[in-house]
Amino acid sequence: MIRHLGILVLTLALGACSLFGGDEDPNPPAPLPEFKASLKVKKVWSASVGDDAESLRLGLTLASDGTNIFAAGPEGRVSAYDAQKGRRVWRIEMDAGLSAGPAYGSGLVVVVSRDGEVIALDATDGSLKWKSKLNAEVLASPAITRDMVLLRAVDGSLRALQARNGIPAWMTEQEVPRLSVRGTSAPVISGSLVLAGFDNGKFLALDIAEGDAAWDAFLTQPSGRTELDRMTDIDGAFGVIGNDVYVSGVNGRTVALAVESGQVMWSREVASYSGLGLDWNSVYITDQLSEVVALERTRGVSIWRQDKLKRRVLTAPVPYGKSVVVADFEGYVHWLSAADGDFLARADTGAAVYSPPLVVGDMIYVLNEESSLTAYRAKFETE
Q1: What pLDDT, in 10s, does the model give residues 217-231?
Q2: Which 3 state secondary structure label does DSSP give 11?
Q3: Which helix (H) or strand (E) element contains residue 70?
């Protein structure tokens, strides 16, 4: 009960949106800014993936093998679509509602049911490969290697299943604070290591084969008078580029760490529950007020801040061409200039978007809470 209270308290504290209707929110979301579009964005195709997710904030995202887009609806439908034209390649119907996935890797498409069952499908035709029961809720997309499927559960555990049959291989656990945000960050693979963040603010690097810890780091030690102040969850997207990993935490910092050792390269006071996106030049962060911040990647120096989308409950930023893309709680997708954060274009998906868009080649894909999947293509000046 306390864990579910966490997201309510945090949402009210941030003033993201009124949960009760009415017009008395003292910190309402920013109105949509007016601007003259300078980037041509074309809607290429759209598809209905499944039923409305009913604002459950499930961990349903998008995945791709480079040719197809894999998507899932909360009621149990999993589909593959041709990435360029939107033609449905296959579709299956599960008997259980889904809470996380799909993830793609090693020829598998993996989803997780709301009762903690991990389901692996053949990526070519959707046929069942195996099932494995976790008895734990999963709200983040799995990570898949040739040998392992790795899952971060809300009970504070990181679990590894054998990719060929779903048999448990190893598990590690961290203590879950009394109050935390509903949700978890998805694990990320880097070489022979799996990287994972936890609700107590701890970030771990573990050997994929055995689960042994290579190193750990605390983004922020819990501090403050109230349990809300002491929240240090690592719930948003983080990423690896080159030899470094970049990660943000709630009520904490954004930190650059060396993947091999965990050594802190730099640290900045930018907290986030949505997470961040990366390109070779910059780190883009959606902070706790839904302001989008760009930092220079190697030193953490501030480049720009876009504050005109404040409290619009933005997704993690996703680099796309010369832009950075975020989506919000009303279903609007915003293209910002990667150079200075200015608005370039906007599109309306029709319903709230909580999972980050997915870039594949020259297109970007967005899944909203009504399980509508939309593909866009932008034409940048030099193209």
Answers
A1: 887 665 556 554 444
A2: helix
A3: strand 68-72
